[in-house]
Amino acid sequence: MSAADPYPLSHVYPLGSRVNNRGHLEIGGCDTVELAAEFGTPAYVVAEHDLRARAQAYRRGLTARHPDGDVLFASKAFPCTAVYRVLAEEGLACDVASGGELALALRGGFDPGRIYLHGNAKSPGELNYALEAGVGHIVLDSLHDIERLERVVAERAAIQDVLIRITPNVAGDTHSAISTGQADSKFGFGLAEAPRAIERVADAAHLRLAGLHCHIGSQLLDLEPFVRAVEALATLGDFDVYNLGGGLGVAYLEAQEPPSIADYVATLTDAAHRVLGAGKRLLIEPGRSLVANSTVTLYTVETVKRNISSWVAVDGGMSDNLRPMLYGSRYEAALANRMLATGGEIHHLVGKHCESGDVIIRDVTLPSPVPGDLVVTPATGAYGHAMANNYNGIPRPPVIFCRDGDARVVVRRETYDDLMARDVN
Fold it and tell me: Which one from 80, 94, 214, 354 is the annotated catalytic residue?
């Protein structure tokens, strides 16, 4: 979006978004009203330029301050083959948390040697798949994880590079469901247990310890906890590789002003240089901050009714955006076909599912919505498609890439036949 755009949009929308002269929202140069007419709703609409620009910002920021570093796409945020492909083209490495994400990353074109396999409950099947694929590093999460991987690698008479995940007893200000750095966590080794894990891996004949990993949580808008996490890692010894995780928060609401990518990278690298010393390989793992604001979700208003409250019901809901129901996440909303409309009253924007909790946004101001209006919720690139489901037998939405006015479907809409594709007669 240029300074000359007559109708500026909030920073929660993808880079380059604008309101055109018809009062319609444009994403990636594409009129969203035309997109809805062509592809239907609900739909995830991705500005490809936004994905590439944020990936480039991360790479530039890390390379400028720490040339021996790498940026990993934490792909659980948006596990879509086309997204993997774009970020692989931009030179990122990749973090996967399951065999399925590994399959998508490989299909998307990532070099197996630059893929890192995470997970707190990796199965023998997933570990064998990772070894067959030639995954560069596996992140160990428990003593059982160490024993299992050692056994699987020994059967192949191979050597596997590993990192050990540390829980540094640092908790950022975020929802408990996405906080992972506190001492009582299902992830990683606490500071007291870490020396035993380090010694155990060092003694393993078929595992090669490259270094440590930590990730303290997600949607963090304060940088200070990241510094404390680095300081905690420094107490465990001297290693060649430190994966400092991800977790940088994004703007879901216009009032939110998260730290910039540049400030986040500077904070991490400054802390690492200060307490870890020179000559280390630093890895960072952005997910949400790479993809969240690249994407909007489009809905069609189906009904509007008033009792004590005003309820605006759309053709999607908890099947395409589960975050508000899981942990009360807040979003903005607007009428994409009437972006310049003003005024309005407070409504509850709700989905079509058979749950009273199927509320996308409580208390949102919309200008006199009516059936047929096109609702947009921005910042849905992270954990929208990733958590999409078929509750009430609703087919999952398509993913549409927009670039320079051209739109293409990269994930088609599911059909009713897809819902029965796994049935066994």
Answer: 354
